[in-house]
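Quick one: structure tokens for this chain, please?
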Amino acid sequence: MKRRLLALVCASASLVSACGALPGGTGGRHTVTVWLMKDSASQDFLRRFTEDFEHTHKNLRLDIRIQEWTGIGPKVQSALSAGSDDGPDVIEVGNTQVAQYVEDGRLTNLTLESMRDWGMQDWLPGLAEPGLDNSAQYGIPWYAANRVVIYRKDLFEKAGIQSPPRTRDEWLADTEKLDTDTDQGIYLAGQDWYTLSGFIWDEGGDLAKESATTWKGTLDTPAALRGMDFYRRLQALGDGPRGADEEHPPQAGVFAGGKVAQIVAVPGLAQAIVRQNPALKDRLGFFPVPGRTAARPGSVFTGGSDLIVPRNTDDREAAVAVVAALTGAKWDTELARTMNYVPNKTTLAAAVAGEEGVAAMAAGAAHGRATPSTPQWAAVEADNPIKQYMTKVLAGGDPPTEARRASQRITKELAPGPG
């Protein structure tokens, strides 16, 4: 943010680590400080982007500083509260984190640019909606990732399944065929609440809803209960643990064991599977989570990142120029190809059509959603009542009763604190 004069070598070095001011001038160029998260973009991508941006913006230098995800929340909050000379001009944040940073007017309102210049009507909803607060756009979609179905092509062929299912009913029928004495039709952990969320959204339900500035848990609505019932039926066609999530044990290892026909995961997990079992290298395929009808894939939880501009930037115009470049079609599609992400717009999906897993992910992302856009949602996830609700239902508990209890806990956690 501070308009420091940096030597050209420092601008390049800052792609790897933070770099202080060096003596000497840079031709009067202003420095724009950008915080990006570790592993979001390759060093080669950042080098090429920096060269292009500085070539087309002769009066600006980029100081890209890589941040760790661990502990980033307090660090960003501190930067947003600092003086105008002490922090970044542009920050990458998780799409669901925007809500906790927008409080107290600490972010720049980018609604005008979004409507006039950036084609916000085509943004992925799972990235755009979390960046919106009271009809103002603060978080600008950058890239997305979401779950698909990773499947064993050889086991599908053995079961006589000619092509991946496109509807939920087909998915259940196929999974029943795949669930044999020797193989699990699907490995679906009992507490995979992200996957459950998609089923609930497909039914027209929500995890929580806001009414008159008050949030209320809504797992007990008829629509949400239908989503849970589908989850229960699908989960029963395998041996996933009822009382654990997809990381306990890591489902990549379970799938690599060779006795599972399907899992629901991000496509990148296939690499971990093949590392553990190289024999599966050419046997894995991908398809979008099926929807209620063949007209569209199912809804999915969309993870990814938005870019924000702190209100305390001392050069709004320069910060906006960086956001425009990073999220524009040229560099956004280049990032997606480089990192196997989904681009930020539905209209850019063709850019990743050549990669089967990413193409399946992009199809689902067009109908992606995010968790409720409230700063208090982090409190829900801290001791997640949705996970506990799922386990109780899968163990035979009464769904409406357990859903009502979980909804009450969500409502309590989402209530604003004192002060």
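The first strand starts at residue 30 and ends at 37.
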